[in-house]
Amino acid sequence: MTGYASAQHGAGTGSSEAESRPLSGRRLGLEIRSVNSRFLDLSFRLPDELRAMEPMLRSLLSAKIKRGKVEVRATLESGDSSTLPDPSPRMLQRLNSAQDAVRSWLPQATPLSVAEVLRLCIGQGAGTEDWGEAVPALAEQALTALLDARQQEGARLAAMLQGHLKQLRALAQQATPLVPLLVEQQRQRFLERWKEAMGLAEGAATPEAAQDRALSEATAFAIRIDVAEEVTRLQSHLDEIERLLKKGGEIGKRLDFLIQELHREANTLGSKSSALDLTRISVDMKVLIEQMREQVQNIE
Question: What's the whole-number average pLDDT of the chain?
Answer without folding.
Answer: 78
